[in-house]
Write a structure and sequence with these properties.
The protein has about 100 residues and is α+β, with helices and mostly antiparallel strands. The chain contains three helices and four strands, in the order βββααβα.
């Protein structure tokens, strides 16, 4: 299982780009950049989830699960966040709360 640091960039009104870093030599060493992912949370994206019957909390859970699966697909390994996941989810939460 990899230790992953997520570093969100400055968010836009409908998405945020996130750098994904890992620690191949351990948490005491410098992280290595692996890839960048984009999380879209525009009105169209959220409306699709709401149409499936999801409420605010379910949408947040969906984004958390989707981020995990997207990073896992890119790294081809299980991972755990050692930082940045809460910050990323707060960005998503701040942008979608007005849609509910």
């Amino acid at each position: 299982m990899k230790d992953i640091l997520l570093k969100p960039h400055t968010p836009y009104f409908n998405h945020v780009e996130i750098d994904v870093l890992d620690y191949p030599k351990g948490l005491n060493e410098e992280p290595r950049w692996r890839c960048m992912i984009t999380v879209d949370y525009g009105k169209f994206d959220v409306d699709q989830l709401k149409a499936k019957g999801m409420g605010f909390e379910e949408v947040l859970d969906y984004y958390k699960d989707w981020i995990y699966k997207l990073v896992r697909a890119r790294l081809l390994d299980e991972w755990t966040a050692v930082g940045g996941l809460d910050e990323t989810l707060t960005i998503v939460e701040d942008h979608i709360k007005e849609m509910f």
